[in-house]
## 1
Amino acid sequence: MKKVFLGGTVNGSEWRDELIPHLTIDYFNPIVKEWNEAAQKRELEERLHCDFCLYVLTPKMTGVYSVAEVVDDSNKRPPKTIFCFLAQDGENKFSDFQIKSLDAVGRMVQANGAKYFTTLKGIWEYLNQS
């Protein structure tokens, strides 16, 4: 069975809770109660070995490392890389400028041969048919 790595925004974002029930493939959720060296090592292994690496960014993001990860993966492993940004997460919203910037990232990732979505439904439909 194929497997997807669920990378991207954490910080109380519930996008994974919305996506997981719709998946018919296996997944790795890197969210753990305590982030430590073992959790980091497992995340790196899963990211390397999963059939797909998904990065979903939402307005609850505080860091930018996931942007670097998705661009890096879209260059190194484009067939398995998927990028999505959600313009709204609960009451949090990206600004128009941020949306333009994230769309430019999405188009860059897509030009590298990876997949780019702006809805979770698009992601689960793609993954479930893969």
## 2
Amino acid sequence: MPDALYAPWREAFILGPKSDECIFCDPATRKGVRELILHEGKRVFIVLNRYPYNSGHLMVVPYRHVANLEDLRTAERNELMALVATASEVINTTIKPAGLNVGMNIGRAGGAGVEGHLHVHLVPRWVGDNNFMATVFDTRVTSVGLGSVKKKLKPAFARACAPKRRR
């Protein structure tokens, strides 16, 4: 067994410069966020997590910078939850995980990586995906890259979020 395993995809996150600016507030100008967006709604967007816990890990994010659920306007809350349900359906029908974690980390003490801007995580799960790597080496193995995941999910979101035609 080696003493350590190399996980270079985490280097930019861990060692890279930290900004006081919120990465979610202006996705059109945020390098590295724009390219990961899967769907843009009226008040909320869906984006892949650049540093996923598992392949297909994405987030549903309101455009407006709000810290707590109670800060959302009714229309934002409705669209947020509707897109969480749509994202769940797209993940389940497209990449077919055995399960799904859906949750929010609110505030620093709650584990928020982006403090002050509410977002919902959807993390696909498979039996055995939490193996010895995370417990012994503090390293995660992500089997499918972001580009491949985006190529599969983006058209599925386009279909799922398309306006429904009346007959």
